[in-house]
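Appendix B. Chain record.
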Amino acid sequence: MKKLIDQILKFGVVGIISFIVDFVITMAVSTGLRQGAGMGTSQAALIGAFFGFVVSVIVNYILSMKYVFERRDDLDRKKEFIIFVVLSVFGLGINELIILFCIDIVYATGHGFMHWLVLPLQQRALRSWQRQLLWSTIS
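Structure tokens predicted for this chain:
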């Protein structure tokens, strides 16, 4: 049982390190593309996430094979890495779809919804403030 708990903890640490690598590279690449190349937010985010994910998968594989999992003698390293990458590609697909959905759909509709909601409230607050100002000058 202790061996399983140790493996889970090591897996968590490797996951945190991989997340940090993914996040830093994603932000660096997407920021560089937006500011340096003038690329749109969603395109830059998708490209940044791709590069961050690829590098983090490689880091995750190296750290996992060194600290978390035991190597199988019946599987060569190349085949082992290919299996690891193929399984990770599913994660990449989910990751890219979530980014695309959040930036292109949620942000666009959320931004429009915000204006639809905030503008009438703002106008109502301004009218109320103007009435108070008008009544205070009359009295």
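Further analysis of this model is presented in Appendix C.
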